[in-house]
Design goal:
The complex is a heterodimer.
Chain A (H helix, E strand, L loop, with lengths): L26 H16 L4 H18 L9 H21 L10 E8 L10 E6 H27 L2 H4 L8 H30 L6 H29 L10 H27 L4 H23 L14 H20 L4 H4 L13 H9 L3 H4 L29
Antiparallel strand pairs in A: 1-2
Helix pairs in contact in A: 1-4, 1-10, 2-4, 2-12, 3-4, 6-7, 8-9, 10-12
Chain B lengths: L3 H8 L11 H16 L19 E6 L7 E6 L5 H7 L3 E3 L11 E3 L26 E7 L7 E2 L14 E7 L32 H5 L17 H38 L22 H4 L2 E3 L13 H27 L1
Parallel strand pairs in B: 1-7, 2-8
Antiparallel strand pairs in B: 1-2, 3-4, 5-6, 5-7
Helix pairs in contact in B: 1-2
Classes of the chains: A mainly alpha, B alpha/beta.
């Protein structure tokens, strides 16, 4: 934000409720809330419910986001959603599905005749209002689901979210945290080099300017990574721990077998024509094997938590709001299917089913249930919570 | 029907020059009004079965034997697609949520159980594509062919030809449509337009209207010399598709005709309770026991619903969006 560098501790009434201590909500609570909304949105193609879900997302993000760089990403997700809708409409218009008798023709594109063996796909031809509306709603659903993920990304600190990875995967999480921190550092580095060039009155533009920026930035990045490696080495990262060769092999076998089981189970569930009996037991067995492998692999990593994230009442309420939406839409679709998935041929106004609408509106309660976010006091765009990014640390005196 | 933009702009052309900046608003408003006005229009009426002759119109039949019902037969003339033919004959259909209305997931007609669409939502929720073990399969029998061909295209891609019979059966098929409970056990001749003998193998109707097989929009954009071009296309594709069709139907046609003629012997008419599904009944042949009845048009016009929920939903969404904008504005002001 433009004025961020000038601010002294500004407290916005309402956002900064004086009775509540500003703190970051547990990232897992935000993710459960957002994934619950994803499940809910996936169950419906009702445009009213989808628009309602989008406004709920916007309302909660506007109220509870921080000033971190990732917290400003929601508008880009909205643009992606708009692009998806536009692309869906264009494809629907170009590859028309044919007209029905009662369709309302909006306009006609030049029709390209396709041979009979290519039947089923038409290129060009009349574009009906019904087809355009159903394409819009279809794109809106995918766009809303992507915005749900965007809201979770904007609301939850990604570095702290990686803390919940099981211990066996902590090296993976650490690599992700380092790479997430890289992008803001690179931007800052580029800005610094550009400022230095302006001070030296560097007038070169185009490819030459690129060279004179890229080399200092690369040198800077190399220097930083050597420093980071030294710092992590001195803190005990990268130890293999007391794992024997047999344990490692057992862990790998368990994880591989579990993954195969989960894949086979998913195939059985999605295929439908396969043996029904295989699907659920295979998924369950795979999950058990994976958990055993992760638990065994995690035993060699002993972690201490620096500033652990608490899980208190607001976390329960926020996660519960998302789960209520998901469960309600998941189970009402059985007897409310016509309202959840309205048809546009023949054209009719979509209904607003009461129970799913209330369930989606309940998700907006997260804007009040979550504690107000901590605001940055001053300073430039950087890495405000770098310490929080440390997800695991082997115990030194193991 | 004229396009909404020209319709809307001619109606909502601002009269003064000073309000030129409102022109985008007027245009948007006119599009919205046209969309709303389009909701009020109703569907077209159904053609009676007697309109179909061996050389005119296409017969479409839906076999409800899976639920102990009859074969309901309807007629449509010059319909642009198999989907439009179903609706023109008075059937109501429903698609599934995943594939849209073009994938026929449920079919119903007023002649059977007051127009209830089958399968009911308890049998198939119709949210994803139905599996090949229980779905409405689509069978074609062009004029002169007395065996069924599993349609290689969907109801939106197919163009009904004069004298053709189209059939929808419910059940299971394999991928090629050669086996399974969904394969019809009766020949197309039981369903053809009855007021004349079945047509011979060379049908004059095909050559008179050759453009029919290429595009459903022939009436709206007539193209010069389309006749000659389309004739060559038709013959070429027929030459390609005929061996395929023979291959598909050869091993079935002779045996099946015999079986079907045996089954046309009078059987004990086993009327079951209407609600009880009778899946095993298909094994005994539908045409032998199930009667063929004429399709009836839908009794009531489908209403376009009310705009109330739309207004309420949009107001709720607008209130939330206004709340979000207000919060952002205050945040920006205090920073």
């Amino acid at each position: 934000m433009r004025h961020a560098t000038l601010s002294v501790r500004g407290r916005v009434p309402g956002i900064h409720d004086s009775r509540r201590v500003p703190r970051a909500l547990h990232p897992v609570a935000w993710w459960i809330w957002a994934l619950g909304l994803v499940i809910a949105v996936n169950r419906t193609t009702n445009p009213l419910l989808l628009i309602l879900a989008l406004s709920v997302l916007g309302f909660v993000v506007a109220n509870r986001r921080t000033d971190a760089p990732w917290a400003r990403a929601f508008k880009y997700y909205l643009m992606v959603a708009l692009f998806i809708i536009a692309a869906r409409i264009v494809f629907q218009s170009v590859f028309t599905a044919g007209l029905e008798s009662g369709d309302h023709v909006l306009f006609e594109l030049p029709h390209i005749r396709t041979p009979r063996w290519y039947a089923g796909v038409q290129i060009g031809g009349p574009v009906s209002l019904e087809a355009t509306l159903s394409a819009t709603v279809d794109g809106l659903r995918l766009g809303t689901m992507i915005c749900c993920i965007g809201a979770a990304n904007a609301l939850a600190n990604p570095k702290r979210a990686l803390r919940v990875l099981p211990g066996a995967l902590y090296e993976l999480g650490m690599a992700v945290v380092v790479s997430i921190s890289l992008a803001p550092q690179l931007i800052e580095s580029v800005q610094r080099v550009a400022r230095a060039r302006r001070l030296r009155a560097g007038q070169r533009r185009g490819f030459r300017a690129l060279r004179s920026i890229a080399i200092p930035v690369l040198a800077d990045a190399l220097e930083r990574s050597v420093l980071l490696a030294a710092a992590m080495d001195s803190r005990g990262y990268g130890r293999t721990g007391p794992a024997t060769r047999a344990t490692r092999r057992l862990t790998a076998t368990l994880l591989l077998a579990g993954m195969v089981g989960v894949c086979a189970g998913c195939y059985g569930l999605l295929n439908g024509s396969g043996p029904r009996l295989l699907a659920t037991p295979a998924i369950l067995a795979g999950a058990v094997l994976c958990s055993a492998g992760l638990a065994l692999g995690g035993r060699r990593v002993r972690r201490t938590h620096y500033r652990p994230d608490p899980w208190r009442a607001p976390e329960w309420i926020v996660a519960g709001c998302g789960l209520i939406s998901a469960v309600t839409l998941y189970f009402t679709s059985g007897y409310n299917a016509a309202d959840l998935n309205p048809s546009f041929s023949p054209l009719r106004f979509p209904a607003l089913p009461a129970l799913p609408a209330v369930a989606i509106l309940i998700a907006a309660a997260a804007a009040f249930a979550a504690p107000p976010p901590r605001r940055r006091v001053s300073g430039s765009v950087g890495v405000p919570d770098a310490a929080g990014g440390r997800i695991a640390r082997p115990e030194v005196s193991a | 029907m004229s396009t909404p933009t020209e319709l809307g702009l001619s109606v909502f052309e601002p009269p003064c020059h000073g309000c030129r900046k409102w022109r985008p608003t007027f245009a948007a408003l006119s599009v919205v009004l046209c969309v709303l006005a389009a909701f009020a229009a109703g569907p077209a009426g159904a053609a009676p079965l007697s309109d179909c002759t061996p050389h005119r119109g296409t017969v479409v039949a839906v076999d409800f034997a899976h639920w102990g019902g009859p074969i309901v037969r309807g007629c449509g003339i010059d319909q642009p697609s198999g989907y439009a033919l179903l609706h023109a004959a008075g059937f109501t259909t429903a698609g599934d949520a995943h594939d849209g209305a073009a994938f026929i997931c449920r079919v119903g007609n007023q002649a059977f159980h007051d127009g209830i669409v089958y399968p009911t939502s308890s049998e198939d929720p119709c949210t994803v594509t139905p599996s090949t073990s229980a779905y409405w399969s689509y069978w074609l029998a062009p004029a002169g062919q007395n065996s069924w061909t599993y349609s290689p295209v969907g109801p939106m891609g197919d163009v009904p030809k004069p004298g053709e019979v189209e059939l929808w059966t419910f059940g299971a098929t394999d991928i090629g449509g050669t086996g399974g409970s969904g394969v019809p056990r009766f020949p197309p001749s039981t369903l053809r337009a009855a007021n004349a003998a079945p047509p011979t193998h060379t049908t004059p109707t095909r050559s008179t209207t050759p453009t029919r097989s290429t595009t459903p929009t022939r009436s709206t954009n007539p193209i010069p010399s389309a006749t000659t071009r389309a004739t060559t296309t038709t013959t070429a594709t027929r030459a390609v598709s005929a061996p395929v069709r023979r291959m598909r139907t050869a091993h079935r046609s002779a045996a099946e005709r015999r079986v079907a003629s045996e089954r046309r012997q009078p059987r004990r008419p086993a009327r079951k309770r209407p609600a009880a599904p009778a899946p095993d009944r298909r094994r005994h042949g539908a045409a032998g026991s199930a009667p063929v009845v004429a399709a009836q048009p839908t009794s009531e016009r489908t209403s376009s619903g009310s705009a109330g929920p739309l207004v309420i939903g949009l107001c709720l969404a607008l209130a939330l969006a206004a709340g979000a904008v207000w919060t952002m504005w205050r945040r920006r002001r205090y920073e």
